[in-house]
Amino acid sequence: MQRRILLFVTDLKIGGTPTVVRDIATRLSRGNEAAKARDVVIEVACLDRRGPMADQIKAAGIDVFPLDASGPADVAVVGRLVKLVHTHRIDTVLSFLMHANAAAAAASLVCAGARFIQSIQTTQPTPGWHWSVQSIAQHAAEKILVPSASAADAAAQWAKVPRDKIVVIPNAVDPKDFAGLDEGKPNGKRAGFIGRLDPIKRINDLIDAVAPLPSQFTLDIFGEGSQRQSLEAQIAKLNLNDRVKLHGAVADPREALRKIDLLVLPSAAEGFGLVLIEAMAAGVPVIGTNVPGIRDVVRDSSNGLLVPPSNPVQLGAAILRILEDCAFCDRLVAAAKIDVRARFSWDVVLPQYRQLLNLE
């Protein structure tokens, strides 16, 4: 009997969760003999209009269906989702993020033959109404998937999800995809950030941390978002235009990882922090804040460094320590590569998705 699974996400813009959706889809549908024997069809849909990640998914031979929601109040999108589930004979819907989870929960009321699983990918406490909606939507799901123990705690506390309903499956990378990115790099002084330019990421703290460092220490920021103008103003005010560069979004994180010597994620909260394991696999040392999600990945002074959130002074000291102490940096990098293979490689993680989706 053919299995038909729909991965359903709020949007397919460049970002952590769309990347996760792309990778799950391509890994589960990869055309090896085992996949053919299971007779599994994976499709992807998004609430929003078609985004850049949709092209990458389509290039892998996977059908993508944008539902073209005009905004959060476009309830007609639920009908379009129901039609997709019915006409494509979908037996399992795995939705990601609050808006998609809410739409999937509504669709489940008239899709009795399908199994619904939701994914919560954040530990961010605000906006509170997101958690209120999620606390209602979760009743329509058989399981709630989260990427970390911290996200499980958030789902239980703020969305009132029963603990026995939560499944923790971490995000993953293929270490082979990031091999060799650290070869030939000089012992540089280039810190970097990769991600959305959003207040929750606390990029302003990173700029403040770099400002008093010696002039050879630079910062490259890759990403786009609502905070761009305020960050540009901060850089100008601190006279850092020669040392801090905003490069815009990159379609592939490897483009950015090739250009930096250190990855810093100074967020106030994360569900996981996919960019951390991408950097670790690439041989780029990492610094993160000691907050939910990040501390599920980074083990302080073992595979990276953790610093208190909203503390530019300690963040700057950590940057100096890694970029000036080559032996310490090399130990972190070596341990991080081992840790990624042991905890966050697709060889380890994909079987967990197969079990959740009853594909084993």
Description:
Helix 5 (98-108) packs parallel to helix 6. The model is unreliable at 31-35 (pLDDT under 50). The chain is α/β, with parallel strands linked by helices and 360 residues long. It is built from 14 helices and 13 strands. The chain folds into two domains: 3-172 and 345-356, Rossmann fold (3-Layer(aba) Sandwich); 176-343, Rossmann fold, CATH 3.40.50. It has helices spanning 16-29, 33-38, 52-59, 76-87, 98-108, 128-137, 149-158, 203-210, 228-237, 253-257, 274-281, 312-324, 326-343, 346-356, and strands at 3-9, 40-46, 64-66, 92-96, 115-119, 143-146, 166-168, 190-194, 218-222, 244-248, 262-265, 286-289, 305-307. The strands form two sheets. Strands 3-2-1-4-5-6-7 form a seven-stranded parallel sheet, with helices on both faces. Strands 10-9-8-11-12-13 form a six-stranded parallel sheet, with helices on both faces. Helix 7 links the parallel strand 6 (143-146) and strand 7. The longest helix has 18 residues, at 326-343.
Blueprint (SSEs and pairs):
Blueprint: E1 3-9, H1 16-29, H2 33-38, E2 40-46, H3 52-59, E3 64-66, H4 76-87, E4 92-96, H5 98-108, E5 115-119, H6 128-137, E6 143-146, H7 149-158, E7 166-168, E8 190-194, H8 203-210, E9 218-222, H9 228-237, E10 244-248, H10 253-257, E11 262-265, H11 274-281, E12 286-289, E13 305-307, H12 312-324, H13 326-343, H14 346-356
Parallel strand pairs: 1-2, 1-4, 2-3, 4-5, 5-6, 6-7, 8-9, 8-11, 9-10, 11-12, 12-13
